[in-house]
Amino acid sequence: MPQHDVPRLYLDEHLSPRIAVQLRRYGFDVISSQERKMLSRNDREQLILAASEQRVFVTCNFSDFIVLDEEFRKENRIHWGILLTTEEAIGILLNRLLRLLNSLSVPDMKNQIRWLNEFR
């Protein structure tokens, strides 16, 4: 069972919502943009939603979210982390996310950009 300071995740629309379902089976708090019906929303709106719920935003969209991180910093806005990943099979992403969730706490991700590939 996860600890109370484990990051909560928000999966971008490019990631399968099945990942969220699987992670919830392990007791983690994970939602997807599909589940939130945010598919038609722009990246900024999605990051704002994730930040309002203190969730790490998980995405394959490197360039846009690096820019959004810079904008948030200039505006003195807080986000709860941006986790960048390459497109991989669901099993690989699930294993890496489990490693991350079992090794990092909320403060480790706050206002940070990290690469999921660190958790191979």
Report on this structure:
It is a single chain. Helix content is 40%, strand content 15%. With 120 residues, the chain is α/β, with parallel strands linked by helices. It has a single domain (8-119), classed as Rossmann fold, CATH 3.40.50. The radius of gyration is 13 Å and the shape is globular.
SSE map:
Elements lengths: L7 E4 L5 H9 L4 E3 L10 H10 L2 E5 L2 H13 L7 E3 L5 H12 L4 H4 L3 E3 L5
Parallel strand pairs: 1-2, 1-3, 3-4, 4-5
Short description:
This protein has 120 residues and is α/β, with parallel strands linked by helices. 40% of the residues lie in helices and 15% in strands.
Salient structural properties:
120 residues; Rossmann fold; 5 helices; 5 strands; 40% helix; globular
- Determine the CATH topology: Rossmann fold
Percent of residues in helical segments?
A: 40-55%
Shape: globular
Which CATH architecture would you pick? 3-Layer(aba) Sandwich
* Chain-averaged pLDDT: 94
- Count the E strands: 5
Structural class: alpha/beta
Radius of gyration: 13 Å
